[in-house]
Amino acid sequence: MLALVTATAAAIAVVSAGAPAVAAGQSSVVATGLDNPRQLSIGAGGTVYVAEAGTGGDGACLPNPEDPEATVCLGDTGAVTEIRRGTQTRVVTGLPSLAGADGSAASGPSAVSVRGSNISVLMGLGGNLETRALLGPAGAELGTMLTGRIGQDLTVAEDVTAYEAAVNPDGGLVDSNPNGFTDVNSKRWTIADAGANAIVTMGGNLPDQTVAVLPPAMGVPPWGGDPIPAESVPTNVVTGPDGAYYVSELLGFPFPVGESRIWRVVPGQAPTIYATGLSNVTSLAWQHQTLYAVQLSDSSFLEGNPIGSLRQVVPGSEQHPAVLDGLFAPYGVAIHGTTAYVSTGSIAAGAGEVLAVDLR
């Protein structure tokens, strides 16, 4: 996939009214008005951080990788929002963002981690070094890992897109769209590159390395016929209670329903399947020994209806109960105690929210 997020851009008009109502008592809204919110993380004291991919702007423009007749334009509208003690504050602003004229389906900040006052922000792209060069200096941070201290300018710590250009782990189209990560330590990260179809570890004083390349699946198009190959697009990586990496998967065209997998990855070993029977998974989070997954859409993207859910993953089963469903384009999940925080409205400007979901 050239750009993971823009795969759902055509669905915006269908669901522009926003999220359907959910049953009382299941969740509460803790943040609103977010711009294309993506992955979340938990900081000290249960503070929640959410990456906002922004709304683009009036800078340099490129053809939309999913619709050559449309364009996406650069702006400095990417941000990170902190949710603390009932209030929301954008603690990082001015980050690069690419989006269409309506600000939807942006590429920009895709994931965040905060340790004390130190912050790491992963930047999406959906292209390669040549794509990024066309954007000029203002777009140079796309496709990288930014680090620094909250309240100060962030700088490039690692260039994920350059690694894809140099190594191209899957041997396919050179394309990078960093989408989610887990901390190895404060200066080293394991990253899910959705464009590269690979999991890579970068940073610190150790060599960068490819941890895994996920194999494609076979999927039947919504209109029927014989199964065709669907690329395995890794969307997020988390560290499990056993120390292994767990990787969420969104399958590419024809976006088959019920064919997405969750992978267990141990560096130096072949990836193994941990769970099957899911659809369009964009994020994972553990609560003790229980894994939860977000489905961006419970149906095929080709149906233009990105209504998704938060699922409790049942290992060895193809049935995973919905903790909360009927969500408009949910994307990220992070857990603190018995509360799961889920970002929704991830493909629209200003319509994003974070929900607090009681897991008890």
Which helices and strands occur, and which strands form pairs?
Elements lengths: L26 E8 L2 E6 L5 E5 L8 E4 L2 E18 L2 E13 L9 E7 L2 E6 L5 H5 L10 E6 L5 E5 H8 L10 E8 L2 E6 L4 E6 L5 E5 L3 E3 L8 E3 L1 E8 L5 E7 L8 E6 L6 E7 L2 E7 L2 E6 L11 E6 L9 E7 L4 E4 L2 E6 L7 E7 L2
Protein model, in words:
This protein has 360 residues and is mainly beta. It has one domain (29-358): Neuraminidase (6 Propeller). 4% of the residues lie in helices and 50% in strands. The chain is built from two helices and 27 strands. The chain has helices spanning 129-133, 160-167; strands at residues 27-34, 37-42, 48-52, 61-64, 67-84, 87-99, 109-115, 118-123, 144-149, 155-159, 178-185, 188-193, 198-203, 209-213, 217-219, 228-230, 232-239, 245-251, 260-265, 272-278, 281-287, 290-295, 307-312, 322-328, 333-336, 339-344, 352-358. Strand 25 and strand 26 form a beta hairpin. The relative contact order is 0.17. The model is unreliable at 1-25 (pLDDT under 50).
Q: Can you summarize this structure?
A:
This protein is mostly beta strands and 360 residues long. The chain has two helices and 27 strands. It is globular and about 45 Å long.
Notable traits:
single chain, 360 residues, mainly beta, Neuraminidase, 5-stranded antiparallel β-sheet, 27 strands, 4% helix, globular
Structural Rg? 18 Å
Poorly predicted segments = 1-25
CATH superfamily: TolB, C-terminal domain
CATH-scheme architecture: 6 Propeller
Helical residue percent band: under 10%
Report the portion of residues in β strands: over 45%
